[in-house]
């Protein structure tokens, strides 16, 4: 009899291993013969850890074509499935097969789970496990659990003295720890050290994650190679300031150990300071250049009252508990059956013409699971009804594509619109698809057939009038 199989979904390449590391951290709490990874891109990192791994192509895939191992018990996405096309199909295929699905991600701010992407994933998945701090625990629901940072580590009272003895450092000095594996942050930290040294002498500047064979000490600098996780966390626990890139899991680890941190360099495309919870923004310092970084460090070194105020705020964020990987593994093991969605969301389609695609933003943002179909084409003049004289809508044609993307005050803004762009003069462009024309019409009809509700504007109704006849009971006219 085959054992139950836990299927971990990851992806990664050299220098971009965060998703794989999260999956591996949790997988370590299972027997290896119970675990299989489906990984995108480069699988060497996982295979070196001794886990079975299948490399998958992450391009668009039909959910029906995905074949799961017969003994799969639970599927664990180590990142949002919406980050890769194949993973979206995999996620929905698992739900159709009634296989339990768990999604892992971070909790950046309170009420995040009410935002569109997270709300939809929570509705479809069996559980969301979000890395966060204790002050966010009230965000938990039956299906959403807040777990602490992943490493198995507990704060140690005398760790600074122990490390000082190991590396011949002064435990009474101020320790600045730098995560040096990210080159832009490393270069900024090196320049800030030179500026900081002009104003202070009683500090140690510790850079870890360097390509070194062994530790090197140069005056008040300690240069360290890449450290095992436990040793890095001990340094983080012992240090007075931590300088890093905007890596949220490292930020959570530092705050869990009550170590003030400075984010150095540019933030990511999505992960920026302003998206974080206000309580996190209050305690995270941000430096855009070496001068600013040196000034923040100098201020914290010299101003004891400022350090105490900052430490007091940080201490209120978390209870000091880590070991999130084991906690996540326990949740996964206890999940027994998949919860089917009792009432599937209605399939709604909204059909728009020209600038209505932009004007409908407010309406679209208030609807969930809405399929937006837009036609950009010449329209009848002078009135709204079909008329032989047709002219393009120049205002729309001069818009940027970016203006058609839905604007939302959410961590992950989300837009889906299917737009058909026709010629400026009447419908001459349809000559380009003569061999496909009947297929195109059938595709439009299939949208109407599958829809539970057809929302359409008066202008769009004139273009779709003949196609709509079999579906009159589904139609709802809306004005934009």
If you had to describe this structure to a student in words, what would you say it looks like?
By secondary structure, this protein is an alpha/beta fold. Helix content is 33%, strand content 22%. The protein is built from 17 helices and 21 strands. The strands form four sheets. Strands 3-2-1-4-5-6-7 form a seven-stranded parallel beta sheet, sandwiched between helices. The relative contact order is 0.09. The mean pLDDT is 92.
Q: What do the pLDDT scores average to?
A: 92
Number of strands: 21
Binned strand content: 15-25%
Shape: elongated
Highlighted features:
480 residues; seven-stranded parallel sheet; 17 helices; seven-stranded mixed sheet; alpha/beta; 21 strands
Mind sketching the topology for me?
Blueprint: E1 5-12, H1 18-27, E2 35-41, H2 44-47, E3 52-56, E4 72-77, H3 85-96, E5 101-106, H4 116-124, E6 127-131, E7 144-147, H5 159-167, E8 174-179, H6 183-197, E9 203-210, E10 216-218, E11 221-225, H7 229-238, E12 241-244, H8 248-256, E13 261-264, H9 278-283, E14 284-287, H10 290-302, H11 304-315, H12 324-334, E15 348-353, H13 356-359, H14 361-365, E16 370-376, E17 379-380, E18 390-391, H15 394-397, E19 417-421, H16 437-450, E20 453-456, H17 458-468, E21 475-477
Parallel strand pairs: 1-2, 1-4, 2-3, 4-5, 5-6, 6-7, 8-9, 8-12, 9-11, 12-13, 13-14, 15-16, 15-20, 16-19, 20-21
Antiparallel strand pairs: 10-11, 17-18
Helix pairs in contact: 1-12, 5-7, 6-10
């Amino acid at each position: 009899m085959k054992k139950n199989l836990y299927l971990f979904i990851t992806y990664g390449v050299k220098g971009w291993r965060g998703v794989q590391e999260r999956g591996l951290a949790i997988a370590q709490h299972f027997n290896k013969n119970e675990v299989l990874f489906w990984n995108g891109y480069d699988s060497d990192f996982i295979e070196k850890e001794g886990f079975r791994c299948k490399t998958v192509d992450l391009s668009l895939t039909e959910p029906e074509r995905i074949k799961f191992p017969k003994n799969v018990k639970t599927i664990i996405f180590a990142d949002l499935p919406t980050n890769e096309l194949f993973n979206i199909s995999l996620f929905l295929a698992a739900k159709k097969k009634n296989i339990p699905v768990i999604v892992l991600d971070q909790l950046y701010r309170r009420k995040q789970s009410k935002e569109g992407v997270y709300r939809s994933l929570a509705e479809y998945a069996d559980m969301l496990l979000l890395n966060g701090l204790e002050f966010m625990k009230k965000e938990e629901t039956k299906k959403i659990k807040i777990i602490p940072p992943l490493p198995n580590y507990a704060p140690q009272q005398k760790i600074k003295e122990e490390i000082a003895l190991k590396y011949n450092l002064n435990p009474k000095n101020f320790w600045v720890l730098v995560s040096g594996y990210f080159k832009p942050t490393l270069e900024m930290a090196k320049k800030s050290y030179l500026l900081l040294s002009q104003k202070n002498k009683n500090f140690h500047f510790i850079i870890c994650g360097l390509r070194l064979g062994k530790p090197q000490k140069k005056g008040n600098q300690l240069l360290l190679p890449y450290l095992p996780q436990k040793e890095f966390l001990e340094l983080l626990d012992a240090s007075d300031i931590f300088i890093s890139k905007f890596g949220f899991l490292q930020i959570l680890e530092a705050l869990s150990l009550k170590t003030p941190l400075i984010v150095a360099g540019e933030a990511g495309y999505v992960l920026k300071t302003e998206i974080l919870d206000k309580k996190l923004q209050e305690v995270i310092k941000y430096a855009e250049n070496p001068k600013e970084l040196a000034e923040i460090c100098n201020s914290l070194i010299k101003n004891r009252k400022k350090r105490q105020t900052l430490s007091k705020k940080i201490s209120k964020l978390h209870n000091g508990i880590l070991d999130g990987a084991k906690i996540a593994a326990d949740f996964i093991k206890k999940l027994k059956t998949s919860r089917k969605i009792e009432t599937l969301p209605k399939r709604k389609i909204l059909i728009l013409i020209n600038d209505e695609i932009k004007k409908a933003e407010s309406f679209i943002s208030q609807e969930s699971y809405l399929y937006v179909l837009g036609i950009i084409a010449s329209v009848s003049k002078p009135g709204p009804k079909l008329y032989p004289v047709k002219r393009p809508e120049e205002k729309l044609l001069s818009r940027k594509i970016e203006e058609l993307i839905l604007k939302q005050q959410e961590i992950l803004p989300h837009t889906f619109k299917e737009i058909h762009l026709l010629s400026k003069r009447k419908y001459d462009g349809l000559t380009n698809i003569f061999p496909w024309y009947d297929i195109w019409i059938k595709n439009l009809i299939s949208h109407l057939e599958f829809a539970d509700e057809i929302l359409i504007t008066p202008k769009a109704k004139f273009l779709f009038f003949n196609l709509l006849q079999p579906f009159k009971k589904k139609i709802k006219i809306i004005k934009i």
